[in-house]
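Lecture 7 notes: from sequence to structure.

We start with a single chain of 105 residues. Read the sequence below before looking at the structure.
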Amino acid sequence: MAKILNLDKLVAERRSVKLFGKEYPIEEMTVDNFLVTSAEAEALKDEKSIPKQVAATVQMLRRSLPSCPEEVLRKIPLAQLQVLTAFVRGDDEHEAVEEGEAAGK
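Now the structure, written as tokens:
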């Protein structure tokens, strides 16, 4: 009997972000997205221009949040951009709060 690993059954936890009252699903990091993001990070490792670094971050977020328009990402404060980037990468230190949970705290 052959063993079969059914990766289709391994469904990642669905995550999303809410920006300006609208919810945007986060697409999990694919191999292709990882390679593109890693190549861009490598190309920017010695970049001293903060605007270029922020623009690259917005493009990385667009790959993970394809339903979120770029102009929405460009409207958030820089502090939120940093938190959002960490959350999308999965190494966030901020607790995600569902609506309704915040009232109980």
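Residues 50-64 form the longest helix (15 residues). Keep this in mind for problem set 3.
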